[in-house]
Design goal:
binds 5'-O-[(R)-(carboxyoxy)(hydroxy)phosphoryl]adenosine, 340 residues, binds zinc ion, Nucleotidyltransferase, domain 5, globular, alpha/beta, 10 strands, 2 domains, single chain, 5-stranded mixed β-sheet, 9 helices
């Protein structure tokens, strides 16, 4: 007998984007994101402004997600939300909404870890893409996190390495700020790097233990280098923008790939995945594809829409939690820190 379909509405509000998605089993029916542009002018996410915007956006985004999916609220089997990690004020908006919605419908509530969501985005149906099998390694790189995750099963994973200071996305954004790009600068570095020479300049690469990362030294190295060069030529940045972006990108990718490769060799794992906002970076995608071509790894790169923060990744995680009956009660609270 065919199993009954599972329909879940998921909400993601951990940072500055308000997102809602509807999933039917492992197929995404809708995935809507209301982006907040207000933070650009401040050079970073302002938590107070983010939570206010979530309050304004959450009802229309959920309403649109249901309409686009052509699903009524009465058809839903569960409501999922991001419990953490993230900005407390932002998480509280999604959490409170989800709790109230689930209670009013009398259906289960599912509290999802955002970082698990980034990893499980690889299991969303995409007709062109194979899904990883277990075990695999996932390099999760975003504005707030940099982790190497050993994924043993959908809901069984272990962080084997992480950053001891800045995240990879933060490194991109801070370097971009020094070059005069608006926030978030990662995508600008990527764009300009495409016309530059990656070996034009070299920057400090840290030595960290095991599979851990460090990016704060890189920012300092770039800052001192630019200050020195600008004393000799005030237009140095303008004249060398593409080469600077290419060299910075190459350095960040080099730091990431070295540890990922070491982990793959030590653990004897042949399947490598990337996740999180920085996995949108074309240089990182190419570096991974080269590993496939030259070293025989099988690599998994998420669809662009599922790289940066989105509710579809929360929905797919909730689907696996639903199958196992992992539900939250009405006392559940958002949490800024939430380990995998
Ligand atoms: O996962 P995400 O959307 O949000 C967090 O959970 O942090 O990641 C956002 C980060 C930002 O630091 C942004 O600059 C970076 O991802 N990012 C990129 C690119 N696209 C987004 N960094 C480098 N190249 C890109 N193409
Ligand atoms: Zn994220």
């Amino acid at each position: 007998m065919r199993q009954k379909d599972t329909l879940i509405l998921a909400i993601e509000s951990s940072c500055d984007d308000t997102s809602a998605a509807v999933i039917k089993n492992t197929t995404v029916l809708s995935n809507l994101i209301a982006r907040q542009v207000i933070h650009e002018q401040y050079g970073g996410v302002v938590p107070e402004l983010a939570s206010r915007a979530h309050q304004i956006n959450i009802v229309p985004v959920v309403d649109q997600a249901l309409k686009k999916a052509e699903v009524t609220k009465e058809q839903l089997d569960a409501i999922a939300f991001t419990r953490g990690p993230g900005l407390m004020g932002s998480l509280v908006v999604g959490t409170s909404f989800a709790k109230a919605f689930a209670m009013s419908l009398g259906i289960p509530l599912i509290a999802v870890n955002h970082m698990v969501g980034h990893v499980l985005a690889h299991f969303i149906d995409d007709e062109n893409k194979p899904k990883p099998t277990f075990p695999f390694l996932c390099l999760t790189v975003s504005g707030g996190h940099t982790q190497i995750v050993l994924v043993k099963d959908h809901l069984e994973m272990e962080v084997i390495g992480s950053t001891i200071d800045d995240a990879a996305g933060e490194a991109f954004d801070k370097a971009a700020k020094l070059l005069g790009f608006p926030y978030p600068g990662g995508p600008f570095v990527d764009k300009f790097a495409q016309g530059g020479n990656a070996s034009a300049f070299s920057f400090a690469k840290p030595s960290t233990k095991g599979y851990d990362f460090s990016f704060s030294g890189l920012k300092t190295s770039i800052l001192y280098f630019l200050q020195k060069q600008q004393q000799l030529d005030p237009d140095f940045i303008e004249k060398n923008k593409a080469d600077l972006c290419a060299s910075i990108q190459e350095t960040v990718i080099g730091i990431l790939m070295k540890k990922l490769l070491k982990a793959a060799q030590d653990y004897g794992i042949n399947q490598l995945a990337i996740a999180g906002g920085v996995s949108a970076n074309s240089g990182l995608r190419n570096a991974l594809l080269n590993l496939e071509k030259e070293k025989g790894f099988q690599v998994f790169i998420p669809k662009f829409d599922y790289c940066t923060d989105n509710a579809a990744m929360i929905a797919i995680t909730a689907k696996y939690m639903f199958e196992k009956g992992i539900f939250a009660d009405q006392q559940v609270a958002a949490t800024a820190r939430f380990s995998i």
